[in-house]
Write a structure and sequence with these properties.
The chain is α/β, with parallel strands linked by helices and 172 residues long. The chain contains three helices and 13 strands; from the N terminus they run H-E-E-E-E-E-E-E-E-H-E-H-E-E-E-E. It has a six-stranded mixed beta sheet, covered by helices on one side. A three-stranded mixed beta sheet has the order 2-3-13, with no helix packed on it. A two-stranded antiparallel ribbon has the order 5-6. 34% of the residues are buried.
Amino acid sequence: MAEIVSRSSDECQICNLNSRLIEDGAESVSWSDLWENECHLYVRTSTDHGCIHGLRLDIQGAEYRRISKGKDTRMCDFSVVAVLGNAAQLIAIELKGGVAYSEEIEQLVEGLRVLHEYFQENDLVARPEACWVVGREVEKLSFSLRDKLTSLRFGSETVRLHLLECGEVLHL
């Protein structure tokens, strides 16, 4: 019985994160098929996942966006959040239908910043990740990112980056 109570508490935490982001301007989206500019990312979960939410974070004027020189900073396209056991999976996602450039990693940096600021510490262990999905030249992007990967952080924690091609599947 105690595990059920704990699980219920965990699920509410992710729902709370989802609700707070929506209140501040994010949009709820289907999490299993994310697409932008003819680029799809299919997300698959296990039966052990609970409380899965998809969010479009790249919304102009959202309260969580920083303003620099009178304009909103660039933001990653999506986020998927879910509970798996005692972990909160928090994934920032950027989709580019064509070629992506290493300096655009800032969009994922901003998405991770938002997830970190909105995630409230509790019994769940944060498991942040970033996923960059591109249409062409994944190998070139990977090579050009070698010096920038340390910029992907969730608070003080370094975050793992998944580089995928459009149409691939991300298994949570």
